[in-house]
TrEMBL record:
This is Gamma-tubulin complex component. Residues 504-820 form the Gamma tubulin complex component C-terminal domain. InterPro entries: GCP, GCP_C, GCP_C_sf, GCP_N. Component of the gamma-tubulin ring complex (gTuRC) consisting of TUBGCP2, TUBGCP3, TUBGCP4, TUBGCP5 and TUBGCP6 and gamma-tubulin TUBG1 or TUBG2. TUBGCP2, TUBGCP3, TUBGCP4, TUBGCP5 and TUBGCP6 assemble in a 5:5:2:1:1 stoichiometry; each is associated with a gamma-tubulin, thereby arranging 14 gamma-tubulins in a helical manner. Gamma-tubulin at the first position is blocked by TUBGCP3 at the last position, allowing 13 protafilaments to grow into a microtubule. It comes from the Eukaryota. It comes from Penaeus vannamei. Its main location: cytoplasm.
């Protein structure tokens, strides 16, 4: 995460909690230095649950909710519980959150009161006599609090209305619901035939009839003396009731076998439900695998029924034959219940199956069955994975794959200008769709497909070599080798495409030449040619004339040898550099909003709004997207305007040469102005030197060294982002306060230069004009010195708080001989009453 995002999140968090934002910079720096992957090594999830339960108003309700979420296989539940327990144990954080919540709710006209406290007040009201107004107030308070804490979500409302989400795949035929006997599960019959008590017949006949009922129940047909009650929830097993008149010994044997009938009912219900289109290919494949197991189960029932017809089957023998099958059916019913209850889909189904398979290590037959189910269910998922790894294509009609394509555009419009959010936002990981056995490879899988997708758009003939069929395996995961091999091929091929075929480094050097003012003669030519045009109001500047002058500057300078000079274009932006910086960084906290202009359209000159643009083709636009170009434009506008100010001051210096011919009395009038001009020129030149050599050039060399060891495109993006972030930060473009001070100082320099240019020569001035000139120069001196002192103090403070050594170098450049420090100390002594008295009178000798 970049420093700008951390700063944004910290500021937003402070705003929500009602905490002062003065410490935002310090916390941002601390977080930036300590960003690392969270590894829970001290506090276990069980101890965290215990801590939260002890601090919860209703511990039993909390534990029930936790168990429910755990059974639904909710991802990242344990890390969340550990995080919440940390908040509960940290007294300072908890108090800060509570105080922030109270203040925020007070602003909204609400009170920070829990529902249990209000209930206790109502119970107290039942014992005491309250007036009608008091009861109405208490009722309104309860309603208001309930609206705050118990607003149902849209999904919950849909559940309450009985709506069923079924938007994927073809519609389900209506006849599936209109034909109740189409199912293999139990059918509810409203009127059962009236039969007598089974206990009135002999025990042998009772056993024979009970076996017949059990064999019917085992295939989903209700018996005569064993009835079926539907389950309370659709994922539970039905309940069975045996005729109470049956002998207890026979009833006990029947009760042992009846759970097998319930497991069958659960499996059949799961197969019939998950075979529908909208449940996805993984669930359909799992249902098909379960169907093959149910066929084997049906064969067993058929063999038992044949024995029963020959009077060769007793309840003891029946229990002996189904005992092993009972364990398998129980395991299958358990896993289908978890899948149905958690509404698992796609990769989450495979995670549940894989976890259950691992838990059965040592249980030979049961684990083999689970491996068979997991392999069968993983076939469609592995086919999606193979297409993604080998071709960079997502074929996921039911949103089951771990990678989602956020955009459904065609390749033609992808080539235009989609690179801005392409790399970060188009293809993203869906955490709950990552199978547990692919969790450690998720990031590599995502990058492999993205690489191949970019390669495929540039060269359709590229094919990943050695394509193998992927299959799930618990003992020999061959897919790991395939993932590593395809990633190695894709990363090397894309890096070769960018570096050699598309000449990425040549493009970046070209951008550095123009946006970072690397070509000195080009900048001089451009400013000389465009000065008259850019001095107009930005609305009066003719863009076509600017384009012509830019091309002329390119052709008549050393930039003419650049292969990519034709991609440079003019760009006039009707916003200030301050506004552009805030828009790019998206820092919209209260501290930064004060820098936004009151009007959308500002009256800017062409010089203040002028910038360069750059045309980039795919796939180089992955690196040089619009946001990156905008960052380069910010640096260019800052440097370009500083160059303009330096040019004005140098012009004043040239025009002041004529002062050598003035008489001595007239020359003394200009002494203060000449000294101030030289200080301004020293300031602007040192700021330029610091930004161009100590910041940009140093960061560029670091970037070049890193690029020589780069191994994939993600590293290219990260290194380039680090280069730009370092330049923006050390050039003082990420701090609105510093940028505002620099802008005020350059504004003072521009006003001073214009004043000197417009001032008449000494021969045409009077004594009053000379005094007015000296007073104006004195005001410029006070403004410039005061702003310099403020800038140096702010830089010193930021460098001390953020440990930014590069920024502190500005102070050594601006005040290399301690001139400003001594003068500031002199002014401070002069303005302090006690210090000024001591300063004037001197120390008293004893």
């Amino acid at each position: 995460m970049s420093e700008f995002k951390i700063h944004h999140h910290v500021s937003e968090l402070f705003s929500l909690l009602g905490i002062s934002k003065d410490a935002a910079e310090r916390y941002t720096e601390t977080l930036g230095q300590s960003v690392q992957h969270f590894i829970n090594t001290q506090v276990s999830a069980s101890s965290a649950v215990r801590i939260l339960a002890e601090n919860a108003p209703d511990p039993q309700a909390f534990l029930s909710k936790y168990d429910e979420l755990k059974s639904r296989n909710v991802r990242d539940l344990d890390p969340l519980v550990v995080f919440l327990s940390g908040l509960v144990e940290d007294e300072e954080v908890r108090k800060a959150i509570e105080s922030g919540s109270r203040s925020k709710m007070k602003e909204e006209g609400l009170s920070f009161t829990t529902v249990p406290s209000i209930v206790s007040e109502i119970e107290h009201a039942a014992e005491t006599k309250l007036s009608k107004d008091q009861l109405n107030e208490l009722r309104d308070r309860l309603l208001r609090e309930s609206q705050v804490t118990h607003v149902p979500s849209e999904a919950m409302r849909a559940v309450e209305r009985g709506e069923k989400k079924n938007t994927l795949g073809p519609p389900t035929p209506s006849w599936l619901d209109n034909r109740p006997y189409h199912t293999l599960d139990f059918v509810q019959v409203e009127h059962r035939p009236d039969v007598g008590a089974l206990g009135k017949v002999a025990s042998t006949s009772q056993e024979h009839q009970l076996i017949e009922d059990l064999l019917s129940l085992m295939v989903g047909i209700e018996g005569m003396y064993i009835t079926v009650q539907p389950p309370a929830k659709h994922y539970d097993a039905p309940e069975f009731t045996v005729d109470p008149s049956v002998e207890p010994s026979l009833s006990a044997l029947v009760s042992r076998i009846l759970p097998l009938c319930g497991h069958y009912s659960q499996l059949v219900r799961f197969v019939e439900d998950k075979s529908l289109y909208h449940h996805g290919l993984v669930n359909q494949a799992l249902a098909a695998a379960l169907t093959s197991l149910i066929k084997d189960y049906m064969l067993l029932v058929t063999q038992l029924e044949a024995r029963h017809q020959r009077w060769a089957l007793t309840l003891h023998k029946l229990w002996f034959y189904v005992e092993k099958t009972m364990a398998v059916m129980d395991m299958l019913a358990c896993i289908t219940r978890i899948i149905t209850k958690s509404e698992a889909h796609g990769g989450s189904v495979l995670s549940l199956l894989h976890d259950r398979t691992l838990s059965l290590t040592g249980c030979g037959q049961l684990q083999e069955v689970m491996v068979f189910l997991t392999q069968a269910a993983a076939v469609p998922y592995m086919n999606m994975l193979a297409k993604w790894l080998y071709r960079g294509i997502i074929n996921d009609p039911y949103n089951e794959f771990m990678v989602v394509d956020r955009e459904s555009g065609t390749e033609e419009n992808e080539d235009q200008d989609l690179a801005d959010d392409y790399w970060e936002k188009r293809y993203t990981i869906i955490p709950h769709n990552i199978p547990a056995f692919l969790q450690m490879h998720a990031d590599v899988i995502l990058r492999t497909g993205k690489y191949l997708n970019v390669i495929r758009q540039s060269d359709h003939s590229v094919v990943c070599p050695d394509q193998e069929e992927l299959a799930y395996s618990i003992r020999d995961p061959s897919y790991t080798e395939v993932i590593e091999r395809t990633y190695s091929f894709a990363s090397k091929r894309l890096l070769e495409l960018l570096m050699k075929e598309k000449d990425l480094m040549g493009r970046l050097r070209s951008v550095k030449h123009y946006f970072l003012l690397d070509q000195g003669d080009f900048v001089v030519q451009l400013m000389s040619l465009c000065e008259d045009e850019l001095s107009k109001n930005i609305d009066d500047v003719v863009p076509t004339r600017l384009e012509s002058l830019l091309e002329l500057a390119l052709r008549t300078s050393a930039a003419n040898n650049d292969l990519y000079k034709d991609d440079i274009q003019c760009d006039l932006q009707p916003i200030t550099l301050m506004n552009q910086m805030l828009r790019i960084l998206s820092i919209e906290t209260e501290d930064e909003r004060e820098y936004y202009p009151q009007e959308e359209r500002l009256q800017l000159s062409g010089l203040q709004g002028f910038s360069l643009g750059y045309r980039v083709t795919w796939p180089v636009s992955l690196v040089l997207d619009r946001k990156t170009i905008a960052c380069y434009q910010m640096i260019f506008r800052h440097l370009f305007y500083c160059k303009h100010v330096e040019r004005l001051l140098c012009r004043v210096w040239v025009s002041n040469k004529v002062a050598k011919s003035f008489p001595l009395s007239a020359s003394r009038t200009y002494t203060a102005a000449f000294a101030l001009r030289q200080r301004m020129l020293n300031f602007i030149q040192n700021i330029e030197y610091y930004m161009m050599f100590e910041v940009i050039e140093r960061n560029w060399q670091t970037f070049i060294n890193k690029m020589q060891k780069v191994e994939n495109v993600d590293e290219v993006l990260a290194f380039h982002n680090d280069f730009l972030s370092g330049c923006l930060k050390d050039c003082m473009l990420t701090s609105p306060e510093l940028l505002r001070m620099i802008s005020k100082l350059t504004g003072i320099c521009v006003n001073f230069a214009n004043f000197i240019e417009e001032s008449p020569e000494p021969a045409a001035t009077t004594h009053e004009d000379s005094q007015s000139f000296e007073q104006t120069i004195s005001r410029f001196e006070l403004q410039f010195s005061g702003m310099i002192y403020t800038l140096m103090e702010k830089i010193s403070e930021m460098g001390r708080d953020n440990y930014n050594d590069a920024l502190v170098n500005v102070i050594y450049r601006l005040d290399f001989n301690a001139y400003y420090a001594k003068k500031h100390e002199h002014l401070r002594m002069a303005t302090s009453p006690e210090a000024s008295l001591e300063y004037i009178s001197g120390p008293v000798s004893g």
